[in-house]
Amino acid sequence: MDEAAKKTALRMIPYGIYVLTAKDADGKPYASTINWVTQTSFSPPLIAIAMKADSGSYAALKTTGSAVLNVLGKGQQGAAFTFFKPAELADGKLSGEAIHDAANGAPVIESAAAAVECKLVTTVEQGDHHVMIVEVTDAKVMREPEGRADEAVLEMKDLGEKVFYGG
């Protein structure tokens, strides 16, 4: 396989930018910037989320079965970069972002455009990222989009010319 062609071709797949938040069994919050997300079913509403298998957020979701997919909107590059590294809880904020608990107990990032509460249905454990199939149990829109909802989402290309994931 031509490695350069593979990398370029796979980078042509568009990605939204999200922050998945979860708490472990002891209540410690975790957050990770993720971009491999897609809706897989209307009824019930299911989402597939690929996560690094060695991340704290992955472990917390797998252990407790609950998470929130925080949808970042245009202009939220700072939040995306913040959660590339492990989250820290201080003064009621997660890595400087105001949060509150969703009904399922996972943190909601208050500045996010929307928040989707999820419960884990199954996990496909292949490769360095595992695919978590989650069912949507609730959803909140904190910033009503103007125009198409899918155009209001922060995308990988919005993070700069040199920021890529995958390939």
UniProtKB/TrEMBL annotation:
It comes from the Bacteria. The keyword Zinc does not apply. Gene3D superfamilies: Electron Transport, Fmn-binding Protein, Chain A. SUPFAM superfamilies: FMN-binding split barrel. The keyword Methyltransferase does not apply. Pfam families: Flavin_Reduct. GO terms for molecular function: FMN binding; riboflavin reductase (NADPH) activity. Keywords: Oxidoreductase. Belongs to the non-flavoprotein flavin reductase family. This is Flavin reductase. It comes from Croceicoccus naphthovorans.
